[in-house]
Design brief:
The chain is of the alpha+beta class and 268 residues long. The relative contact order is 0.20. A hairpin with a 7-residue loop joins strand 2 and strand 3 (79-88). It has helices at 3-15, 27-39, 129-138, 145-148, 160-163, 255-266, and strands at 43-53, 61-71, 79-88, 95-102, 107-113, 124-126, 166-176, 179-188, 195-205, 211-220, 223-236. Helices cover 21% and strands 40% of the residues. The chain starts with a helix and ends with a helix. Residues 1-22 form the signal peptide. This is DUF3108 domain-containing protein.
């Protein structure tokens, strides 16, 4: 997706067709309902379309992933997971295909340019505690820890402790691609000699109180950063088991077949 279309997407999202009304639901009720919906999920597979621009970068980058999570609240990473990912990089926008898997004991990491995939790839596998946690943290944005991390993430927004760091928090009703949503708007206080104009928006589907999109923006010095992603739930509480996250160090990857299957899922 070219950069012009990305900016048009964001502009359309926030300035064009959305319909806003007076606050339709109390904050405490909304955040509690979201936590109830999220806490009922033990396993989930979702597609996430992710756009981000970091502070020191000029380009907006796009990635698409299919993520399967088996929630493990006591694990530091909060889930066992398998991720198939296509992403672009700066300086030419070359596309890469990647697979990441984590099962508590090991982490698998594979990454290669799309036009260089083969049928016999050897992924990198790590079991050292510090190394595997470092690798998982490197792609933790795709794990949506705001939603599938610790319990009661959202309920904290109604607490006085959290609100002490905010300028304002409100709720609007809007349409996101025709789907009725609540938008939880969170405006943070500027931090002295640090970030300013920091805002987050959670798009909560009204029918089931599940988050389906997220937007954040902030400024630091003369730089800007923003993130936007949309979530499509492919399955919830299906028959995913812990065994699905086994990592076999002796097994090679048929990356061509993996990529073909991945593309069929994101473009059915």
């Amino acid at each position: 997706m070219n950069k012009k279309n990305i900016f048009l997407l964001l502009i359309t999202l926030f300035l064009a067709t959305n319909i806003s009304f007076a606050q339709p639901i109390e904050l405490k009720e909304l955040v509690q309902q979201v936590d109830i919906s999220l806490n009922s999920i033990n396993t989930v597979t979702y597609k996430v379309n992710y756009f981000n621009k970091y502070l020191a970068r000029k380009d907006t980058l796009h990635s698409t992933a299919i993520c399967s999570l088996y929630r493990m609240p006591k694990d530091k990473m909060k889930s066992y997971h398998n991720i198939d990912l296509e992403f672009e990089v700066e300086n030419g926008g070359k596309k890469y295909f990647s697979q990441r898997k984590y099962n508590g004991d090991k982490v698998l990491w594979y990454n290669r340019m799309v036009d260089s995939l083969t049928t016999n790839e050897k992924p990198e596998i790590y079991s050292d505690k510090k190394m595997k946690h470092s690798i998982v943290e490197g792609y933790s944005n795709l794990l949506l820890k705001k939603y599938f991390g610790k319990k009661a993430n959202f309920s904290s927004y109604s607490s006085k402790i959290v609100q002490a760091f905010l300028n304002e928090i409100d709720i609007k009703e809007e349409l996101l691609h025709g789907t009725p949503v609540y938008v939880l708007n969170i405006y943070y206080k500027d931090r002295k000699d640090s970030t300013r104009d920091n805002v987050e928006k959670h798009y909560i589907r009204k029918i089931d109180f599940l988050p389906i999109a997220f937007y954040s923006f902030l400024r630091w010095e003369n730089m800007e950063q923003y993130n936007y992603y949309e979530i499509e739930y492919l399955s919830i509480n299906s028959n995913i088991s812990i065994d699905d996250f086994k990592i076999d160090e002796s097994k090679s990857l048929n990356a061509i077949e993996l990529y073909k299957n991945f593309k069929s899922k994101i473009n059915p």
